[in-house]
Write a structure and sequence with these properties.
By secondary structure, the chain is mostly helical. Helix content is 64%, strand content 5%. It is built from six helices and two strands, in the order αααααββα. β1 and β2 form a beta hairpin. It is globular and about 50 Å long. It starts with a helix and ends with a helix. The relative contact order is 0.17. The mean pLDDT is 79.
């Protein structure tokens, strides 16, 4: 989570909590969505305060980039990500990055052949 947290802009003191929430969210597979959302990782609410900080204090990280990106949506409107879209996207990147790293290290430790 350290690398993904750093890239996203999650303060170091919160990276372990983000990792733990990711593990808990993964443990909810197959359960109702409201149970998964309760931890705030599935909806991205865990990252809400960090987004607010980045809006006031931009930095060189993915959160700041996503806060400022403009794109043309499916209706042809140039806009920025909504707060919900931003929180969801950051949550997905956090979970996917953490999961990918865990799998890579696990398979590398197992060895090939």
């Amino acid at each position: 989570m350290r690398v993904i947290g750093m890239l996203l802009g999650v303060p170091e003191e919160y990276q372990e909590a983000a990792r733990d929430l990711t593990k808990r969210a993964d443990a909810y597979r197959g359960r109702p969505a409201d149970e998964v959302a309760a931890d705030g990782m599935n909806t991205g609410e865990f990252f809400a305060d960090f987004i607010d900080r980045r809006a006031e204090h931009p930095s060189d990280d993915i959160m700041t980039d996503l806060l400022n990106v403009e794109f043309q949506d499916e209706k042809g409107i140039i806009r920025r990500l909504s707060r919900e879209e931003l929180l969801t996207y950051i949550s997905v990147v956090s979970r996917a990055g953490n999961e990918t790293t865990i799998r890579l290290i696990g398979w590398a430790g197992k060895g090939v052949g």
